[in-house]
Design brief:
Elements (H helix, E strand, L loop, with lengths): L3 H12 E7 L5 E6 L2 H4 L2 H14 L7 E5 L4 H13 L5 E5 L12 E2 L7 E9 L3 H13 L2 E10 L4 H6 L5 E6 L16
Parallel strand pairs: 3-4, 3-6, 6-7, 7-8
Antiparallel strand pairs: 1-2, 4-5
Helix pairs in contact: 1-3, 3-4
Length: 189
């Protein structure tokens, strides 16, 4: 059972760091959320998986996936908890680069063209890696119906998804850690 307060506590204990950090987006930040400290730990992954399935309760979808490596544990945990709940949900992984052998594809897993899919990420800043996953799974022939994250840094990701008519939901935002989001004029697209 999802316990939002416990997930916040786990992030504060294990994954929230203060200092100077360079983000994937290229920005410098005064804090860093290391989502893998949560998703590669049993209690953290359980909380995330339960929470995401609750968050998606009203969404019709066939599969959940995202950019490999960050999304990998989230996908595995979520489809396992879905099975425990009697839900049939498939997982898929999106490669950054097509493998240079075998089928030479970007999408791994049992998902098929035509499926309605959810893209998942641990921490969304501008949404760049999730948007790349969206592009790859749409090229494969699937329909993205939702984007979900564990934490939204509130730094433009939701707006970037909205430009593509993709709704974003998150379990937490940086405000849950007492951090104020930057003013809108400071956001990068």
């Amino acid at each position: 059972m999802y316990d939002r307060d416990r997930l916040i506590e786990l992030f504060k204990e294990r994954a929230l760091k203060f200092g100077e950090f360079k983000l994937v987006s290229g920005k410098t930040a005064s804090y860093y959320l290391d989502g893998k400290q949560i998703t590669l730990q049993s209690e953290g992954l359980r909380q995330v998986s339960e929470g995401l399935l609750d968050l998606l309760a009203d969404v019709e979808y066939d599969a959940i996936g995202g950019m490999s490596i960050g999304a990998d544990p989230i996908i595995g945990g979520t489809i396992t908890v879905a099975a425990e709940r009697g839900q049939d949900v498939q997982g898929f992984l999106v490669r950054k680069e097509a493998k240079g052998h075998g089928t030479n594809k970007f999408i791994e897993g049992p998902v098929q063209p035509g499926a309605r899919v959810v893209i998942v990420d641990d921490v969304v800043t501008t949404g760049g890696s999730s948007l790349l996953a969206v592009d790859r799974i749409e090229e494969f022939g699937c329909k993205v119906v939702q984007v979900v994250a564990i934490v939204d840094r509130m730094e433009g990701g939701a707006a970037n998804f909205a430009k593509r008519d993709l709704p974003l939901r998150s379990l937490l935002t940086i405000e849950d850690f007492g951090i104020e989001p930057p003013p809108a004029e400071m956001l990068i697209a």
